[in-house]
Amino acid sequence: WLPDAMEGPTPVSALIHAATMVTAGVYMIARCGTLFVGNTAAMALIGGTTALVAGFIAVGQWDIKKVLAYSTVSQLGFMVAAVGVGAYGAAMFHLVTHACFKALLFLGSGSVIHGMEHGHHHLAHEGHRHDHGDDDHFDAQDMRYMGGLRRRMPITYWTYLFGTLALAGIIPFSGFWSKYDILLDSIKSGVDDGRLGGYVAFALLLTAAVFTAFYMWRQVSLIFFGEPRHAAAEHAEESGSLMTTPLLILAGLSLLIGFINVPSGFPILGWLFGEHSFTSFLEHSVAYAHAGSFNFLLAALAVTLALAAIYQARQLYNDRVLAQIPPDPLQANEQTAPAFALANAKLYWDEFYFKYLIWPYRRAAYWLAEELDWRFWHDFVHHRLIRDPFNRATEFLTQPVDKGIIDRAFNRVGELTRDLSARVRTIQTGYVRTYALSVLLGALLVMVLILFPVIRELLGI
Q1: Where are the domains of the chain?
Q2: Residue 111 near residue 81, CB atoms below 8 Å
């Protein structure tokens, strides 16, 4: 999900996607290391494979932030592999150094995008058109529209170069020290402990380090070297001090923060910083995984391979080639074109997810919704087993019981009351003589009722 999250603002990418949230998983695994003791080899292989695959994909990306996103995934693979070989201190050290130089690169990419958008707005305001492409398809994040920005944006260029060298693992930048620790601990895991996973992880990580140096210098070449390939790049301007000041601070950290964990065997610096290194503040069970003295051969190998990758990238993306991009020289070469297409398509992971995960999930969800929920539950259970018997019961209660018994009884009472009232109503004729006769008869009846006891007593009845 990380490359897709690059649609967000660049400062968010620098803070969350480089230094905090995405690395929280590595920190959690390191803190819960005792839970993964039985699966360290698998963890190391997963981390190494992730580092290599993500680095390979980054080679084929055109979006400036997508390259950094896959680079972040690759560096997370370095950290997970370090935890897998038991190098918790090296993993956390790389987490710290990565936070500095990757935040620098993300903010630097934001500065580049800002400069490109400023140049494009200048063109729109002046009414200019670019001869090499259609402005309607302009993308400020597409490196194919850039080029020659080192002259237009010098501060961004130099700070971005610092971040690139740190990520590539060039001495004395911070990335060298942390990557060296991981490579050393992985190979020592294989040599000292006899772990095949350590050897395999070392090979994967070393290859991933070569890819890292290559795709980062490819990015630097596409952005800053050569001539502008779009009028927006010709009119790009350096960002203001509010944006360049953090770049300068992070560039300093990318250079200096690696010295907090210089190996004890390194000349001069190891003597100065060794006793107060980054891992010396950790518990011994965490810090002492595969610690050892500085290995000059391994350091020379790592730096030499990184420099060779940078040299190869510079040779491929020289000024002559940069003037005609696209297509990419790797894309134009028949031998490397299939690999570049594979990297550009992200190894078809999206297609794989859709075909083997999303599509089956949708089919299962459709079956659950249509067959199970609608047809079985709604039609069969709800309608046939619940609604229809309930309707029949209510119909029985409505017709024979309610209408046949209850309504008929109440209706009969009403009919009797109506008949009685009709009979009583006949007494009311409306004639005065009838009412006078009624009064007279009533008075006589009252007198009889009053005098009846007296008459009965006189007569002796």
Answers
A1: 3-129+138-344, 346-428, 429-461
A2: no
Q: What is the Cα–Cα distance from 350 to 361, expressed in whole angstroms?
A: 15
Distance between CA atoms of residues 84 and 391, nearest Å: 65
Residue 375 has pLDDT above 70, yes or no: yes
Please report the pLDDT score of residue 133 as a whole number.
47
Across 323-362, b (16+ Cβ under 10 Å) vs e yields eebeebbbbeeeebeeebeebbebeeeeeeeeeeeeeeee
Cα(first)–Cα(last) distance of the chain, in Å?
Answer: 118
Identity of the amino acid at 138 = F
Amino acid at 155: I
Nearest to 184 by CA among 109, 71, 82, 272: 82
Q: Residue 165's pLDDT is what?
A: 97
Share of the chain above pLDDT 90, in %: 40
For residues 151 and 138, the model is more confident at 151
Evaluated on CA atoms 88, 19, 274, 210, the torsion sign reads positive
Q: Is the pLDDT of residue 288 over 50?
A: no
- pLDDT greater at residue 304 or residue 455: 304
Q: DSSP readout, 80-110?
A: HHHHHTT-HHHHHHHHHHHHHHHHHHHHHHH
- How far is the C-alpha of 259 from the C-alpha of 238, rounded, in Å? 31
Dig out the tokens for 85 from the structure: 């070989």
Position 303, amino acid: V
φ/ψ (deg, to 5) at 63: -75, 130
- Can you tell me whether residue 429 is helix, strand or coil? coil
Average pLDDT of 432-446?
A: 88
Distance CA(176)–CA(423), nearest Å, equals: 116
367 DSSP assignment: H
Report how far apart, in Å, the C-alpha atoms of 98 and of each of 114, 166, 271 are: 24, 9, 24
Does residue 280 have a pLDDT over 90?
Answer: no
pTM of the model: 0.77
Nearest to 214 by CA among 324, 58, 321, 105: 58
Share of the chain above pLDDT 70, in %: 90
Percent of the chain that is helix, strand, coil (3-state, to 5): 80, 0, 20
Arithmetic mean of pLDDT, 149-162: 95
CA distance 380 to 382: 6
DSSP letter (8 states) at residue 403: I
Nearest in space to 5 (alpha carbons), one of 73, 88, 60: 73
81-121 pLDDT tens trace: 999 888 888 899 999 999 999 999 999 999 999 999 988 88
